[in-house]
């Protein structure tokens, strides 16, 4: 009988702790909001990613993230609305852009595509979608020395579109007429590439972190002085 009573006591104690936690955490979040979210935060829980966020008392923020090939940053203003911090990049960054530069003719390949920077240097790893007069499009990416269709591809190309999703680049669709020109050069103007255009980006204030939702993920930023690693 004693053992049964002890087991019941353990269960009741556990239930009481859960009830107290459920009541305490919302209160703690309210207290943190009241105290102000200003501080220096670091991203936690994302393997191979490094990110920092600083909310200054003058409502200016600084942000940076490095993750694989992605390297981005932002500065601007933050404001607190209820239990939510909103980030807005200022001044508004200008997105990178791709424009047609030159069109010539070469013998041999059906088509050659090259993307250069404004100084004429080839750029690799720019995604593109090449459409043909028939059949499915070809999805690929540029090389710094240019790109030609794989051997055996004899369909007639009719248009190409470029993109770099991680940097917000999406070009218009460029028409291709290989009867007139099959050596096509485009120029990528970086503008403010790498600067994130936050427009009231939401960070939820929780009892132990600021949580940013991006790309379908919850990114948890912990105050630097609260981290133990």
Q: Element order, helices and strands?
A: HEEEEEEEEEEEEEEEE
Please estimate the helix content: 10-25%
| Whole-number count of domains | 3
CA distance, first residue to last residue: 46 Å
**Second rung of CATH, namely the architecture of the largest domain:** Sandwich
Determine Rg (CA atoms, Å). 26 Å
In short:
The protein has one helix at residues 2-35; strands spanning 39-44, 49-55, 60-67, 70-81, 84-89, 97-104, 112-116, 127-132, 138-141, 157-164, 169-170, 174-175, 183-189, 199-205, 210-214, 217-223.
Q: Can you describe what's shown?
A:
The protein folds into three domains: 1-35; 36-92 and 194-224, Lipocalin (Beta Barrel), CATH 2.40.128.640; 97-189, Immunoglobulin-like (Sandwich), CATH 2.60.40. Helix content is 15%, strand content 44%. The protein is built from one helix and 16 strands. It has one helix at 2-35; strands spanning 39-44, 49-55, 60-67, 70-81, 84-89, 97-104, 112-116, 127-132, 138-141, 157-164, 169-170, 174-175, 183-189, 199-205, 210-214, 217-223. The strands form three sheets. An eight-stranded antiparallel barrel has the order 1-2-3-4-5-14-15-16. The longest helix has 34 residues, at 2-35.
């Amino acid at each position: 009988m004693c053992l049964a009573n002890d087991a019941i006591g353990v269960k009741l104690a556990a239930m009481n702790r859960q009830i107290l936690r459920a009541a305490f955490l919302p209160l703690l979040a309210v207290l943190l909001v009241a105290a102000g979210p200003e501080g220096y935060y670091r991203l936690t829980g994302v393997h191979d990613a490094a990110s920092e966020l600083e909310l200054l008392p003058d409502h200016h923020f600084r942000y940076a993230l490095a993750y694989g090939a992605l390297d981005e940053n932002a500065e601007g203003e933050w404001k607190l609305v209820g239990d939510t911090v909103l980030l807005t990049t200022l001044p508004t960054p200008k997105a990178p852009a791709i424009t047609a530069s030159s069109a010539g003719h070469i013998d041999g390949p059906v088509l050659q595509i090259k993307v250069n920077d404004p100084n004429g240097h080839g750029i690799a790893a720019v995604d593109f979608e090449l459409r043909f007069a028939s059949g499915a499009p070809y999805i690929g990416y540029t090389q710094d020395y240019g790109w030609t269709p794989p051997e055996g591809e004899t369909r007639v190309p009719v248009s190409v579109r470029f993109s770099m999703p991680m940097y917000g680049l999406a070009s218009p669709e460029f028409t291709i007429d290989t009867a007139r020109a099959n050596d096509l050069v485009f120029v990528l103007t970086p503008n403010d590439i790498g600067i994130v255009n936050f427009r009231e980006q939401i960070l939820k204030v929780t009892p132990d972190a600021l949580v940013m939702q991006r790309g379908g993920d919850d990114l948890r930023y912990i105050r630097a002085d609260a981290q133990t690693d």
